[in-house]
Every structure is written in structure tokens, then in C-alpha cells.
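Hmm, how's this folded?
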Amino acid sequence: MTDKGKKRIGVIGIIVENREEAAPHVNRILGEYGEIILGRMGIPNRERGINVISLIIEATTDEVGALTGKLGRLPHVRVRSNLV
């Protein structure tokens, strides 16, 4: 198996700035990739008007790229990933 097809453990951080508009789209996309998500934690920060979602994943780099790419194209959503 090449490195590209090798599953890796990682963390994806998602910041949602307009929950009412973005959350349904974020949740739909996360549901599509549910098989690679090992854990999920969401924390609202009402004072700043943002919500932070942290994902623990096990996936190939292609899967991570597809997930983060879809999320990153959504308005009011910022996403970063880190794999080991």
C-alpha cells in the first residue's frame, strides 16, 4: 500500500461563524464522512458568535482532502487538519 492509500490518525478543527446558516451543511458533510470520524466535540462560544468543532479521524490523505475541501468551500466555515 502506498503512503497515499495508508490510513492515518489526525485532527480536524472547524470554526463555524454563522451557525444558523452553516450548521445544516456542515452536519450533512460530516454525515457523509461518518465512517472516518472516530470522535467529535463541539463547543459554542456565544460571546464571540462562533462554534468550534474538533474531529478525531482515521483516514487516507485523499479522504481528508475531500472532507476538508467540501467544508472549506462553505461560507462562514474555516477548517484546518493535522495528520500523523
